[in-house]
Amino acid sequence: MTSAPTDDLAHPRAGHTNTIVDLDADLQRTVRHTAVMRQLFYVVVLLVALAGQVSGAVEALGIPLIWAIPAVGALELGGIVVLANADVRRRLGERATASRLLSAVIAASAVAFNWTAHTHKLLASFFAGMSALGYLVWLMHTENQRRDRLRATGDLPPTTPAYEVLGHWMRHPWLTLRAKNLAKADPRLGLYTSLATAKAEMRKQLRTNAIAKVLRRKIRAAVDPTTADIAINVFDLDQIAMRLANGADYDGLTALIAADLAPARLTCDMSTQFDQPAIAAAGTANRSLPDPDGLLAADTVDVPAAAAPGLSATTRPAAPAPTLEPPPPTNVPAPPAEPPPYEPISQEDAAMYQAWRRGIASGQEPTGADLARAGGRINDNTGIGRRAARRYRNAHANQ
Fold it and tell me: Do residues 314 and 302 lie in contact, with contact meaning Cβ atoms separated by under 8 Å?
C-alpha cells in the first residue's frame, strides 16, 4: 500500500493530489483482490455444504450418489439464484419481496436438511453452519453492492465520520446523533465541524425556547392565550435573539459583577461578620480572669527616664479612679416599644413584600401589577397587588 506523510493528508499542497490518486489506485486493487478471495471462499464453502447435503441424502434418504449430487446441488444453489434474481429486480426499482422471502426459505431448508440428515450432531452442525455461512456471505455482498449503487446515484447519504465510542457516543449521545445527521445532510462538515455545528444548534434551540417562554408570558399578560400563541408563531424568535445579542450591555453587566468583587466591598463584608458587642464582652471576660502576679490589676507602671524626663525610674503615677455612674431610677416608665416590622401572611405575600421593598430602595414604588407578577400571578385583575401595596405603605408609615 502506498503511504504518505501525515502532513500530505492533513494539509493540501503540491503532492496532495498525487497522494489521493495513489490511495484511489490502491483501493481499486484492494477491491479486486477482495472479490477474488470472496469468490474462492464461497466456492470452498459451497463444496463443503454440498458434501454435507450429498452425504445426508445418501444416508438418510437412501438416494443413489449419482442422483443425490444434482438434487442437493439444486437445493444448495437455489437460495443464491433466487437472491440474485431479487437483486436484479431491486436494481430496476422494485422491492422484490417475494423473491427475497423465497430465497431465505430455500436457504433455511438447506440448513435444516444438513442438521437433520446426519445422526452425528457435531458433524451435522458443521455442515449446517457452512450452508448458512455461504448464504449470509452472498447476501452481505449483494447488499454492499446495492448500497454502493444507491450512493453513486445520490439516493443514499454518504458515509458519516467515525465518531469515538467513549468520547462521543457514551459521553454525549444526543449531541453525537445530531452531528451524525448533520454530516449526512452536508458531507463537507467532517468530524469536528459537525460536532461544533451540533453544539451551536443545541445552544440556539435552548435560547429560542427561553425567548419563546418569556415572550409568551409577556403577551398573555395583555391578551388571551390563543392570541398569544398566534403571536409567538408570527414573530421570528431568531430575529429577536439576534437583536437581543446586538443590544446586550456587556460593559454594564461586567461592571455590575466587578462591583461585587471590589476589594473594599469584600473586606467590608468580612468585617460585618464580627459582632462588636461580642468582642467587647470578650474583653470584659479577659479582665475578670484571675491575675496572681498583679500584671492586669496594677494601677501603676514603671516609666523609663528617657521616655519621661524629670521622673525617676521608680516613679509610678497612679491611674485615674474609675467614675461610678448612679443606677437608673426604678420609677421611670420605659420608652414605648417600636412597632414590629411587617410580617407576610403567605409565600405569595412574602414575594410581593420583597419586591415592594426592592422598589422602595431603588426610589420607585412598584405598581400593583408588578407586585402581582412578583407573587406569581399573570395580571392584577383581582387587585391583590394594589391591596398589598397599601398594606405595606401603612405598615411602614406607622414605624
Answer: yes
What span, in angstroms and rounded, lies between the C-alpha atoms of 198 and 177? 9
| 175 and 143 share one domain | no
Range of the domain at 389: 347-397
The 3-state DSSP class for residue 205 equals: helix
| Residue burial 304-320, b: 16+ Cβ < 10 Å; e: rest | eeeeeeeeeeeeeeeee
User: Residues 319, 320, 324, CA angle at the centre, nearest 5°?
Assistant: 135
- The pLDDT assigned to 199 comes to 93
Between helices 16-56 and 121-153, what is the axis angle to 10°? 150
Q: Are residues 10 and 140 in the same domain?
A: yes
d(CA 373, CA 168): 43
For the stretch 56-97, pLDDT in tens is 888 888 888 888 888 888 887 888 889 888 888 888 888 889
- How many residues belong to the chain? 399
Q: What are the cell numbers at 95?
A: 422491492
User: What is the pTM (predicted TM-score) of this model?
Assistant: 0.45
Q: Within 10 A of 100 (CB to CB), how many other CB atoms are there? A: 18
C-alpha cell at 22: 495513489
Helices H / strands E in the chain, number of each: 15, 0
Grid cell locating 324: 461610678
Residue 300: all three cell numbers together: 501603676
In 195-208, which positions are buried (b, 16+ CB within 10 angstroms) versus exposed (e)? bebbeeeeeeeebe
The residues near 4 (Cβ < 8 Å, ≥ 6 apart) are 15, 19, 22, 23
- Tally of domains in the chain: 3
